[in-house]
Design brief:
With about 475 residues, the chain is α+β, with helices and mostly antiparallel strands. It is about 35% helix and about 20% strand. Among the domains are: about 55 residues, Orthogonal Bundle (DNA polymerase, domain 1), CATH 1.10.150; about 180 residues, Dna Ligase, domain 1, CATH 3.30.1490.100. It has a five-stranded mixed sheet with strand order 5-6-1-7-8. Strands 9, 10, 11, 12 and 13 form a five-stranded antiparallel sheet that branches. Strand 5 and strand 6 form a beta hairpin. Helix 1 runs parallel beside helix 5, helix 5 packs across helix 7 and helix 13 runs antiparallel to helix 14. The longest helix has 21 residues. It starts with 7 loop residues before the first helix and ends in a 5-residue tail after the last strand.
Length: about 475
């Protein structure tokens, strides 16, 4: 999720590393393993209320009762970025997550705008997840401010699902000073939908038997998993509510949205979903690993853009190495000053986790899809087609040749130092200078090669020269 600390998920894994194997596999029961007493809705979806804003208001009581907008600072230079979240006091003005900050300022100029703190919200999230796990080991965090909890095995000791939900809310407010909304459902989908029904600080129970009654009047756009494009397609078919979708012929939906898409839409309308909650100890298989950044000011300099791409490739490479992943496909994302987004992919020469190879491919994509002087608002890099390093037979190829050995050792040295002293303690010079680089009318000046630490000392080949877009 946006604004979550980069290592938030790994910290949670380490925090819950004492989880026994029996507990870690508890949530992976099959539908055939359900017991007769499982008919009571037992999947809880806990959704923290305006989480980032609530943390700020808890820590600074002077902000309580004010329209608070998290995401950036608005000053005489203007507003950049988007709203990450806002307090409930700001929502009557039409402000919502994902809105450009400039629009939020227009709607509520007297609001309080703050940039926010990833570290603070990450720490608060850790406290929330630790609290939830006291109620059931079958806890699956799905973002920094929400999680699923399976309480099927807890009824005899802790009471009904509603009793457990009420106790979670009371404990959350008493110990952490935060509120949450809880949906109770027969499956994950219904629990997720139910948590939206009584916001903020409410509890709503949605068993499968009542799913049609509750869901049928709702617009299709309100269903989790149905986006804007699918909503538009359904509207063109004359389908505007979930009840109309449930009654619509499946064969027509399959022709319009494909076999998987058509069948999935029918299941969503009927409230059918998985009951499986994958707790910590079960390692979720990653599909892609990526990083992106919105510039403080639009950038049109190749030097500045390349330096930021190098920084992002270092971040992605570090996460690949942390998880023992190799990536086969790199995706570059560019967004210009008019919010037009360009996404391009390239197959990597070979599966890799090397920062230098990632940056080389990202630069090749940039040069083919970016016009010199074009102002960019956002750049992003992600790697997909992930395979495990161990057992692939590829590890040896990473060490072939002196250059390969050197690149791997540099990556590992940077990882080790940043792990001990904190992210950003050391980086390749071009990446470290990205925020201070002066934008000229042509190519910028930067230190090429070498390594820069926080102290400002340079090691390695550190000649000053025209930035070439290479490591």
């Amino acid at each position: 999720m946006a604004f979550a600390p980069e290592d938030w998920n790994e910290k949670l894994r380490r925090k819950f590393s004492e989880l026994s194997r029996a507990d870690s596999l508890a949530g992976l029961e099959k539908e055939s393993d359900r017991r007769p007493d499982d008919d009571e809705p037992s999947i809880l979806h806990i959704d923290m209320d305006a989480f980032f804003a609530a943390v700020e208001q808890r820590d600074n009581p002077s902000l309580r009762g004010l329209p608070l907008i998290i995401g950036g600072i608005v000053d005489e230079k203007g507003a950049r970025g988007v709203v990450t979240t806002c307090s409930y006091e700001a929502r009557p003005y039409g402000i919502h997550a994902g809105m450009p900050l400039s629009r939020a300022w227009t709607l509520c100029p007297h609001g309080t705008f703050i940039k926010g703190s990833r570290g603070k919200y990450g720490s608060a999230s850790m406290e929330v997840m630790a609290l939830l796990r006291r109620f059931s080991p079958e806890l699956e965090p799905v973002s920094i401010d929400e999680a699923f909890l399976n309480v099927t095995r807890c009824h005899r000791v802790q009471g009904s699902s509603r009793c457990i939900a009420e106790e979670i809310q009371a404990t959350m407010e008493r110990e952490l000073g935060l509120t949450c909304s809880i949906g109770i459902g027969s499956n994950r989908l219904l629990a997720k939908m139910a948590s939206k029904m009584r916001k903020p600080a409410g509890i709503f129970e949605l068993p499968l038997a009542k799913a049609h009654e509750v869901l049928a009047p709702m617009p299709v756009s309100k269903m989790h998993g149905i986006g804007e494009a699918t909503t538009a397609g359904l509207n063109r078919l004359g389908i505007h509510t979930l009840g109309e979708l449930a009654d619509f012929p499946q064969e027509v939906l399959i022709r319009r949205f494909g076999s998987h898409g058509g069948r999935n839409l029918k299941k969503l309308a009927a409230g059918l979903g998985s009951r499986v909650v994958k707790p910590f100890g079960y390692r979720r298989e990653e599909k892609s690993i990526g990083q992106e950044r919105t510039f403080g000011r639009d950038q049109s300099s190749l030097a500045a853009i390349s330096a930021e791409l190098l920084h992002l490739c270092e971040k992605v490479g570090h996460r690949l190495r942390q998880g023992d992943w190799l990536g086969r496909t790199l995706t570059l994302r560019l967004r210009d000053a008019d919010f037009q987004t360009c996404t391009r992919q390239a197959r990597l020469p070979e599966a890799t986790q090397c920062d230098k190879e990632l940056h080389k491919t990202a630069m090749a994509l940039l040069q083919r899809n970016w016009q010199s002087g074009q102002a960019l608002r956002l750049v992003g890099v992600s790697v997909s087609g992930l395979i495990r390093l161990e057992g692939t037979g590829i590890q040896g190829s990473l060490l072939e040749g002196t250059a390969g050995v050197r690149d791997q050792r540099v990556d590992q040295a940077l990882d080790a130092i940043n792990d001990v002293f904190g992210s950003g303690s050391i980086a390749r010079c071009n990446a470290h200078f990205r925020r201070n680089m002066r934008v000229e009318s042509g190519a910028g000046q930067a230190v090429s090669g070498g390594i820069l630490s926080r102290s400002g000392s340079v090691t390695g080949a550190g000649a000053i020269g025209n930035h070439s877009g290479r490591l």
